Each structure stands twice: as C-alpha cells, then as structure tokens.
UniProtKB/TrEMBL annotation:
Pfam families according to UniProt: MTHFR (PF02219)
Annotated source species: Limobrevibacterium gyesilva
Superkingdom of this protein's organism: Bacteria
Family according to the record: Belongs to the methylenetetrahydrofolate reductase family.
Protein name, as recorded: Methylenetetrahydrofolate reductase
EC number: 1.5.1.54
Length: 293
C-alpha cells in the first residue's frame, strides 16, 4: 500500500549505519567516501565492527576516533570479549571513553577461523557479562545483538531469548538483530520478545543485498536462512550488473516498506561500506539529506 507523506505526524524513521574498519588504503578511501555520502542523512549513530577475536582492535579504534574528530556523526564502537581477559577488554573500553566515545555495541564474538567457543579463563564468558563489565568501566550507552532465527549455538529459542533479556537487564538499552530476509520472521520474533517482557527497542538489522552469492555465504556463516524466492529474483543477473542493481533496490525497498507498514520506525543498515543502496532505501523510507529538499 501507499505510505503516508512524511510530516509531523509521520516522522521519518531513525537510522543507524554499520561499517567495517578498512584493511588497505584503497578500502579506507572507499569507507570514507561511504561515510561522507551517508553523513547528511543524519543517522542516530554509526557503528564500526570489531574483527573476529579483536583482530582489528587498532583499526576499529582509529576509525571510530576519526568519526569523532572529523564528522558530525555519533559513533558506536563494536567490542567483543572472545579471547581476551577482562582487564584487556576494560582497557579498550576506557580508551574509547577517553576518546569521547559513549556508545558500545557489546558482543561475545566468534573464534577466529571457526570452531567451538570457549570463554577465556580470565575473560567475560558471554555478552551479558561484558555488558555488566562495561557499565562498571563507565556509563556507556550499550547495544547488543539479537537473533530472530535464534543464535546457532543456543540451547533453544527460549534460552536465547532469556539471554537477550539478561543482556538488557545488565544495562543494554537496545538490541540490533542479525539480518533476515523474511519480514514475518522478524515480526514473530518481536511478538516473542514482547511476550517475554522485553520492552527495549529490537532494531531490525537490514542487509541490502547487491551480491547474492556473497549474501548466501554470509547467511550460511550467520545462521540466517535465504528464501528460495530471493535466489530466484537474482537468478540470471550474474553478468548483468544493471539489472542486478535494480532488483537489489526493489528487494530492499519492499523489505523496509513492509516493516515500516508494520510500525517499525528504527532501522540499522549493514552497509558493507557501500553507500548507494543504503542511501536509496533511506530515501524511500522518507529520510532526506540535511539541507536537501
Ligand atoms: P551472546 O549473547 O553471549 O550469546 C552467544 C551464545 O551463547 C548464544 O547462543 C546464547 O544463547 C548463548 N549463551 C549466552 N549466555 C549463556 C550461558 N550463560 N550459558 C550457555 N549459553 C549461553 N562479531 C564480531 O566479531 N565483531 C563484530 O563487530 C560483530 N558485530 C555484530 C553486530 C550485530 C548487530 C550482530 C547481530 C552480530 C555481530 N557479531 C560481531 C557476531 C557475534 O559476535 C556472533 O553472533 C557471536 O556468535 C555471538 O555474539 P553475542 O554477543 O550475540 O553472544
């Protein structure tokens, strides 16, 4: 159906954008072009991921610090506890606080290269413990991860929901979901969160798909299911980038419009450091660049 005009009674949604820290100079240029392109959309915050097992610690810190000093944006730093002592994690957090960073996306993280997770003997064992530890370091705003299709290692969907509740009770004020492609999956999850007494925002994590093969690979790693219809939509566009871009825009636009029609007014975008699809979808959601008409 048609969306209402954006006006005082129907404000544009709140957005956040996720980036990964660059590994090379070329990727750094790409990241900063992306940040500059999205900056006028005035997102609520932008977040920078922390590589598996903290492998990007310095690059994440450098990127987040530059966002503080060089842009109008409010950064959030991802931080994981896998493979680190509590003291090491607290030190990273203290450095962020001293650099003016007030928002942490607190995660357990995965074992680099895959394999079964085991807590560090002197570490925070799970994200809920990390959240509590961060709150002892400073009064950070904290976001945590949520899984509409259940985290792959959870004992059960109920246990995973209990875990989300523990993270929020420990001091997180928002959850951001793993990406998903079926809107129903997310809406049913919201219902289950509400039934469990969770009132904090559960912000949908949106991954605009421009490369289906890559999305399918990510999904396999993250336990997100890829519906057959999505594969069919991209089928035959492998050597046709123009059509692929148009299909990608339609798929992403339909997803966010359906969410918006169901009352969702906050969105987190996994940009993969590419601005075009995210910018177009934000536009479709009613967001306009500051200073633009
Ligand atoms: P937790 O909340 O600790 O949960 C992990 C698993 O343990 C779940 O199955 C849970 O049910 C279970 N569990 C929790 N507590 C207990 C307990 N006491 N006993 C037994 N089981 C328990 N990874 C990165 O490396 N860097 C990033 O920057 C990053 N950013 C992310 C951003 C978002 C929005 C999301 C959704 C994920 C991100 N990840 C990132 C991936 C994340 O690190 C993995 O999904 C990881 O496997 C789980 O992290 P978590 O914080 O959800 O863990």
């Amino acid at each position: 159906g048609a969306l209402p005009a954006r006006d005082a009674a129907h404000p544009a949604p709140a957005l956040s954008f996720e980036f990964f820290p660059p590994r090379t100079e070329a990727l750094e240029t790409q990241l900063w072009n992306c940040i500059r392109r999205l900056e006028p959309l005035a997102p609520r915050f932008v977040s920078v991921t922390y590589g598996a097992g903290g492998t990007t610690q310095e690059r994440t810190h450098a990127t987040v610090s530059r966002i503080v000093t060089d842009t109008t944006l409010t950064p959030a730093a991802h931080l994981t506890c896998v493979g680190a002592t509590r003291d090491e994690v607290d030190e990273v957090a203290r450095r962020y606080w001293d650099a003016g960073v007030r928002h942490i996306v607190a995660l357990r993280g995965d074992v680099p290269g895959g394999g079964a997770y085991a807590p560090h003997p002197q570490g925070y064992a799970y994200a809920a413990e990390l959240v509590a530890g961060l709150k002892r370091v400073a009064d950070f705003e904290i976001s945590v991860a949520a899984y509409p299709e259940t985290h792959p290692a959870a004992a059960s969907a109920e246990a995973d929901l209990d875990n989300l509740k523990r993270k929020l009770d420990a001091g997180a004020s928002r959850a951001i979901t793993q990406f998903f492609f079926e809107t129903e999956t997310y809406l049913r999850y919201l219902d289950r969160c509400l039934a469990a007494g969770i009132t904090a925002p559960i912000v949908p994590g949106i991954m605009p798909v421009s490369n289906f093969a890559q999305a399918a690979k990510f999904s396999a790693l993250n336990g997100a299911s890829v519906p057959a219809w999505l594969g069919h939509l991209f089928e035959g566009t492998e050597d046709d980038p123009e059509t692929r871009r148009m299909v990608a825009a339609v798929v992403a636009a339909e997803q966010v419009r359906l969410l918006q029609a169901n009352g969702v007014d906050e969105f987190h975008f996994y940009t993969l450091n590419r601005p075009d699809l995210t910018f177009a979808i934000a536009h479709i959601l009613g967001v306009r660049a500051v200073g633009a008409k």
